Amino acid sequence: xxxxxxxxxxxxxxxxxxxxxxxxxxxxxxxxxxxxxxxxxxxxxxxxxxxxxxxxxxxxxxxxxxxxxxxxxxxxxxxxxxxxxxxxxxxxxxxxxxxxxxxxxxxxxxxxxxxxxxxxxxxxxxxxxxxxxxxxxxxxxxxxxxxxxxxxxxxxxxxxxxxxxxxxxxxxxxxxxxxxxxxxxxxxxxxxxxxxxxxxxxxxxxxxxxxxxxxxxxxxxxxxxxxxxxxxxxxxxxxxxxxxxxxxxxxxxxxxxxxxxxxxxxxxxxxxx
Length: 273
Ligand code: SAM
Hints:
Strands 4-3-2-5-6-9-7 form a seven-stranded mixed sheet. Strands 1-8 form a two-stranded antiparallel sheet. The protein is α/β, with parallel strands linked by helices. The radius of gyration is 21 Å and the shape is elongated. It has twelve helices and nine strands. Strand 2, helix 3 (about 55-60) and strand 3 form a beta-alpha-beta unit. S-adenosylmethionine binds near residues 20, 48 and 69.
């Protein structure tokens, strides 16, 4: 806590809420995040939002190299100064959403470890999971409710949960109270571990087509599937009913109840018909 406060004071940094700047000041949680990533000296790590560099320094101690992308210009000199003697740490000034992961880490395997800026959580996860190459593993701090939503099972699925579960097996590895951060956020947090599939379980449907149908299914909240799909895909209801029948899915079900395998069957039935 003292070292973070000291850095904040020394550099006159006023944490910006608009950039999601809630610095993790509890060393115990920082260590647990690093442990969850199971780092080895051969690992390349992409860190998003290094902030004051507290997580970065722990990652650098265990991984072979760390590429840390920070958007806030006020933090760049501080970070470059702090890691000047460590050639394995690369500080990149930029917006993670505008940088292709491959351009940052190269074409080999890499892991993502980050205390994410919460205002772009879903966009960052999509950006990473849809990229080529995808990370092999991601350990990310997110808002607790978002972590739980991502790990939901059929019955409580959302577009976000399906978007993540298409690419990775998610689980919550740690809950983190608001008091572990400075400034204290208004929400509790959780560390999510995503074990990214080397082979996607839904392999025979192009992701763009899969998500076109899933998005249509979720487009009208709490509506029965037949209606939301027909509206969202601009298809006659009879066509949608036939595809649902072919896929063995009751048309009265709602999007949040469908497992990924059922979405796959539905897309295949729609495209066969
Ligand atoms: N890693 C530090 C820690 O754990 O204390 C800081 C985490 S803080 C929750 C999020 C960090 O992400 C901030 O340093 C913020 O400036 C940075 N950030 C916000 N938007 C970003 C973006 N689009 N690209 C890269 N970094 C961003």
